[in-house]
Write a structure and sequence with these properties.
Helix content is 70%, strand content 0%. It has 307 residues and is mostly helical. The structure holds fe (ii) ion (2 copies).
């Protein structure tokens, strides 16, 4: 049985062979005809030339065209995902509005940071939109969706339950992304955006009620494998931490950015990435600049209220 790909190759090869043979016979054959070559030698020459040209062109067509097609359809897919009207984002915006808003802010932060070092800014922006889609499952567990009504956990087993849901959202996100046929590059960032860090705020809460096991508070990973993945991880934590900052001035924002990056380095989340100190500086400065512009209105309002 001849496979579909082979059938196409044979068909293209035959048609090209006939076309090239025809052109060679019309243009090359008469040119050599005046030369002292026998008719038989000329015929073999034209036949061989036609055959090899057909093989080269048809192989190129069969193996290069699908790749070009894949790239075109991938870029179409990315354009569709870049729209905030994507059904998955609409679902996030209605079921977990706080997480949706957070994701838009993460997209702003990560896009600018990626641009500052020449990383794939479009990929990080789109991946940021979708990084927390796993929060569609149990959205009320996450503080950003609690509308200021902070849910208090008052025993260890309850905290362990919450920790299980929270540390699982990257994996759930990966599954949802697959269901919606998101590209692999985005699925990779979704699963790596917490790396192998731990949900410290919950662990600290749990310590008040007994001796919790840190393993229950750790995200399953993997750690970021690409610069784009690492940028989303940092933007994610920086955005979440900035929400809790009372004084959003340049000094405090710079401190917050530096602390977040240091924390991720200490947790060895940078270990798979080759990051120069100049990249580090550029990303750091970009985060500070974007945060300052994002929270500019909050700073102005605060100054206005104080006066
Ligand atoms: Fe997350
Ligand atoms: Fe997030």
């Amino acid at each position: 049985m001849v496979s579909g790909n082979k059938k196409t190759l044979i068909l293209i090869l035959l048609s090209l062979f006939i076309v090239i043979l025809f052109f060679n016979s019309v243009f090359i054959f008469p040119a050599f005809y005046a030369e002292p070559l026998s008719f038989g030698t000329l015929a073999v020459l034209v036949f061989t030339m036609s055959f090899f040209s057909a093989v080269v062109i048809s192989t190129l067509l069969v193996y290069v065209l699908p790749q070009i097609n894949t790239e075109i359809s991938l870029s179409k897919k990315f354009t569709r995902l870049d729209s905030l009207n994507h059904p998955l984002l609409l679902k996030l915006s209605t079921q977990a509005p706080g997480s949706y808003h957070h994701s838009i802010n993460v997209a702003n932060l990560s896009h600018q940071a990626a641009k500052s070092i020449g990383a794939n800014a479009a990929l990080v922006r789109i991946a940021s939109y979708y990084h927390d889609i796993g929060k569609i499952i149990h959205p009320e567990t996450y503080i950003e969706n609690q509308n200021g009504r902070k849910i208090i956990n008052n025993n260890l087993s309850q905290i362990n339950k919450v920790a299980k849901i929270i540390t699982n959202h990257a994996l759930s996100g990966k599954e949802i992304a697959k269901e919606y046929d998101l590209p692999d590059e985005i699925i990779q960032i979704i699963s790596e955006h917490h790396g192998t860090t731990s949900a410290k705020f919950l662990f600290d809460q749990a310590k008040e009620f007994g001796s919790p096991d840190i393993k229950n508070f750790r995200y399953p990973g993997p750690k970021p494998q690409t610069v784009e993945s690492l940028i989303v991880m940092l933007a994610d934590c920086i955005e979440a931490a900035a929400k809790g900052l009372k004084d959003l001035d340049r000094v405090n924002i710079a401190k917050l950015v530096d602390n977040t990056i240091k924390e991720k380095i200490d947790e060895k989340q940078f270990s798979n990435i080759n990051f120069s100190s100049s990249d580090y500086q550029k990303i750091r400065n970009s985060f500070i600049k974007t945060l300052l512009s994002m929270y500019h209105q909050r700073i102005v309002n605060k100054e206005y209220n104080e006066n």
